[in-house]
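User: Hey, my collaborator sent me this sequence without any context and asked if I could get a structure. I don't really work with proteins. Can you help?
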Amino acid sequence: MAQAKLGDTVRVHYTGYLEDGTVFDSS
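Assistant: No problem. I've predicted the 3D structure and written it out in structure-token form, which is a compact way to encode the shape of the chain:
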């Protein structure tokens, strides 16, 4: 997964989705 800047998309991706929308984690 591509690196994300602090306060950028990292928080969105960390929700449990990769950049392409694939779910890799859900909690």
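In plain terms: The chain has a mean pLDDT of 62. You can pass these tokens on to your collaborator as they are.
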